[in-house]
Amino acid sequence: MFYSSTVFVAVLAGANGFTLSKAPVRSSSLQMNTPWFPNSATTNTVSMDSLNAAFSKATGAPVASAEGSEATLNFLEANPYFDQSNIPLQTFKATAPHIGKIVSVKRVVGPNAVGETCDIIIDHGGKMPYWEGQSYGVIPPGTNPKNGKPFTNRLYSIASTRYGDDMKGTTTTLCVRRATYWCPELKADDPAKKGVCSNFLCDTKPGDEVMLTGPTGKVMLMPEKNPKTDLIMVATGTGIAPYRSFLRRLFFEDTPAARNYQGLAWLFLGVAGSDNLLYDADWQLIKQKKPDNFRVDYALSREQTNRAGGKMYIQDRVEEYADEIFDRMDKGAHMYFCGLKGMMPGILEMFEKVCTKKGITWSEKLKHWKEEGQWHVEVY
Q1: Which pLDDT tens digit goes with each residue over 96-141?
Q2: Helix orientation angle between 362-371 and 343-358, rounded to the nearest 10 degrees
Q3: pLDDT for residue 25 is more than 50
Q4: Across all residues in the chain, what is the average pLDDT?
Q5: Nearest to 158 by CA among 181, 182, 126, 135
Q6: pLDDT of residue 15 exceeding 80
Q7: Taking Cα atoms as reference points, which of 2, 233, 4, 202 lies closest to residue 115?
Q8: Catalytic one among 130, 279, 298, 380?
Q9: Are 162 and 241 in contact (CB under 8 A)?
Q10: Of 201, 264, 262, 195, which is closest to residue 232 (Cα–Cα)?
Q11: What is the pLDDT, as a whole number, of residue 194?
């Protein structure tokens, strides 16, 4: 997920509240050996062994096996693990960014997808710890032709847990869609209007250097103090990024959060079509292993229709479960929205319509959810 930013406001360098000890052998309770999406013409899933090999090649670390022991991950936990009083914030600023290195760049959409989205793993050497729901800033190289100054940082939601996909606490994963502009006159992409940072990232190769800032953000953190809290996660496109970090922490890793979680994690993802689904193999594995704690619903606008016969957008899919969502929210669930800001008017309109049918004043209900910290929005 990407959104622009030009100002950093808080600095807590060296005050993250963590003690870094030797990382345990990388482990995972779920193995990803199947294609990212059933019946796809291509296989885009990266196996655990492939990730380990890529990490080891880039850093010189010994290769760890995905079939290794189920080691407990606790070396990046707060004490207690749900304490958010000292989360890492602004460890590196735009004036003095951290230099990370690309470990891998992998296209994660099918051959018929609209646009290109890449899963990008970056080695930060353990110097930029972060929490699930936070973002990194990326400063693309070069000069902005509009003002003659260096490009400013762009923020991307982090798609991995604090332990990284290598589970050693030294990498981060970004989910980036290549931003392009189709010119009807040229009948081709206009290179002058392409997204500078997204194209830079999608074009990088293993070993390339990347200027990183952050981490930043508190809006999208998980409420881990109450392990029975339901999490309702709504995303469009690469807005899936923070939820991947949530779900990997809760269901893929042996962490205190995973061992204690008893709620329902419910994911809604809206994309154009099947080939644009992101990380579907992960979601299907979680459904198989934890059917009582995880649900996923897709809105495929070019392949599905809503109740009225129109295109199925994310708000239409959420509306199908409006009664249950309201019930869960009234019982303390947290609801998250991440992706294109254009989805929010439809979402808010849908909720208002549902409230009218229920005889509820929507503005008061939304105010209550916000006051209770149950409403989380990060759109771009």
Answers
A1: 999 999 999 999 999 999 889 999 999 999 999 999 999 999 999 9
A2: 110
A3: no
A4: 83
A5: 135
A6: no
A7: 202
A8: 380
A9: no
A10: 264
A11: 77
Instruction: Locate 333 and state its tokens.
Output: 């669930």
- In the CATH scheme, what architecture does the domain 231-379 have? 3-Layer(aba) Sandwich (3.40)
Active site residue 380: yes
Selecting among 27, 135, 157, 198, the annotated active-site residue is 157
Q: Which of 197, 202, 338, 355 is catalytic?
A: 338
Q: Pairing relation of β-strands 154-157 and 135-139? A: antiparallel
Q: Is 243 a catalytic residue?
A: no
Residue 368 has phi, psi (to 5 degrees) of -65, -45
Q: Please tell me the pTM assigned to this model.
A: 0.80
Q: What are phi and psi of 234, to 5 degrees?
A: -115, 125
Name the active-site residue from 28, 77, 130, 156.
156
The question of whether 163 is a catalytic residue gets the answer no
pLDDT 10s digits, 128-176: 999 999 999 999 999 998 899 999 999 999 999 999 998 999 999 999 9
What pairs with residue 158 in β-bridges?
174
Domain ranges of the chain: 231-379
What's the mean pLDDT in 38-61?
A: 46
- Report the pLDDT value the prediction gives residue 192, as an integer from 0 to 100: 62
Dist CA 277 CA 270 (whole Å): 8
Tell me, yes or no, if 224 is annotated catalytic.
Answer: no
* Residue labelled with tokens 């070396």: 75
- By mean pLDDT, which of 45-59, 221-235, 272-286 is the weakest? 45-59
Nearest in space to 105 (alpha carbons), one of 117, 115, 97: 117
- Between the CA of residue 34 and those of 38, 45, 295, what are the distances in Å? 8, 7, 20
Residue 313 annotated among the catalytic residues of the structure: no
Spatial contact of 176 and 162, defined as CB atoms under 8 Å apart: no
**pLDDT attached to residue 72:** 74
